[in-house]
Amino acid sequence: MILPLAAILLLAAASLAYASRRFSLPEPTGPYPVGTRILYLNEPGRALDGTPDPQGTRPLVVQIWYPAVPSAAPIANARRLKETTWRDAYLAAVPTHSRWNAPVAVTHEPLRVLLFSPRWRGERTQNTIAFEELASHGYVVAAVDHPLNAERMELADGTVVYGSQQLQGPYGNQATAQQQISYWNEQLYIWAADMRATLDKLSALNDDPRDPLHARLDTQHVGAWGHSFGGAAALQLCGLDPRVVAAVNLDGWSFAGLDQRNADQRIMLVYEDVSRQRELDLSAQPALRGTEDRMDRLDFQLTRDSLEHYGGLRVFVEGTQHADFSDQPILPQIENGKMTGPIDPQRSQQVLRALLLGFFDESLRGKPSPLLSPGQGQFPEVRVERWATPAASR
Question: Of the ranges 72-86, 93-107, 123-137, 363-377, which one carries the lowest mean pLDDT score?
Fold first, then answer.
């Protein structure tokens, strides 16, 4: 007898129940409990793949985390079962520190909104530890799954949309650097449009007297951030929507994401340990043959040009690799060691949470962050470069 997929996933989750019971996410450090809810959007005028289509509809699944009041509402697990694979089905049994649809906390000021985009073939829950940390300090974090890219995305009717987009796009492994960049820039615009649609939805909820977030949000001074490709999409959003005044790219290429930003939009670029030396090595080579080398050198140059012209922060974290800027290194999953560095997983999460909270507090709340000052000593593994705008340096 062939078991249905749901039964297989349930068995996989049960087989790891013991490990799941012993595992917990790091607790948020802020004063507020955390609530979470899911929003389903159907954006008209775009096809499922995000391209323009007057007759089409692009479905988006958005999850938000927000400051809440103490509640007995059900605890949210790390992922919904139908959005897992056999490798990570146990996440459907791992509790978070968030409660489903808990009442929104009473605050003395409007809640600041932060939009999040995941890595290529990532998922909206991939940085839950950071989401809960930010929400516990009074932020509303909205993370979006991008259709056909998210590994699995469960719609309101229970339908699952599977990820199928390949990183190399239509050109495959034979793509030139320019072909690859052109394809990614097309996708960046689609992803940024998804984030903008998410912000529009939050603005509508803010105006809706029936919604718990009614008149609670500041949707005119917004932050955006993401991991890897999602970080580039967050930067791209700066050029598309003036409501976004601050953005963070966690260890991703930037390319077109830096084209249209201005000096009023603050950015922070966070890189894995080897990136600084790689930039120096590539700049010293007179000619490059490999596609990835060409793209890396071009992106480093575009990044420096943008920082010199508009200012911003560039941060290198010793001991990290690409996946250390997500929840991956702290989860007891099969691929736990893939693309993670020697830094202790608990320490990497402590650094990441402090960087994000410090940057958004400084950018959106006007609270200077000692962590983001060059020469700070709180985290010796963190190297900060603060680039002043030409106007500020005069």
Answer: 363-377
Bridge partners for 247 per DSSP:
224, 267
Task: Give the residues across from 39 on adjacent strands.
Answer: 62
Structure confidence by residue, pLDDT tens digits, 108-119: 899 999 999 999
Which residues on neighbouring strands pair with residue 263, listed in sequence order?
none
CA distance 14 to 213: 36
CA distance 358 to 68: 21
Q: By the 8 A CB rule, do 138 and 37 touch? A: no
What lies within 8 Å, CB to CB, of 154 at 6+ separation is 61, 80, 82, 83, 160
Token look-up 């000692």 returns 370
Looking at the chain, how many residues does it have? 394
Closest CA to 141 of 243, 217, 47: 217
Which residue spans within the chain are E strands per DSSP? Answer: 34-46, 52-67, 75-77, 95-100, 111-117, 139-145, 152-154, 160-162, 217-227, 244-250, 266-271, 312-317, 382-387
Distance between CA 198 and CA 110 in Å, rounded? Answer: 18
111-117 β-sheet, strand order = 75-77, 95-100, 34-46, 52-67, 139-145, 111-117, 217-227, 244-250, 266-271, 312-317, 382-387
219 and 243 Cβ atoms separated by less than 8 Å: yes
* Of 289, 302, 276, residue with least CA distance to 381: 276
Instruction: Yes or no: say if 117 and 50 are a contact pair by the CB < 8 Å rule.
Output: no
Angle of helix 291-310 versus helix 177-206 axis, rounded to 10: 50
- Widest Cα–Cα separation across the chain: 75
Neighbours of 110 (CB within 10 A): 16
Claim: this prediction has a pTM higher than 0.85: yes
pLDDT tens by residue, 179-214: 888 899 999 999 999 999 999 999 999 999 999 999
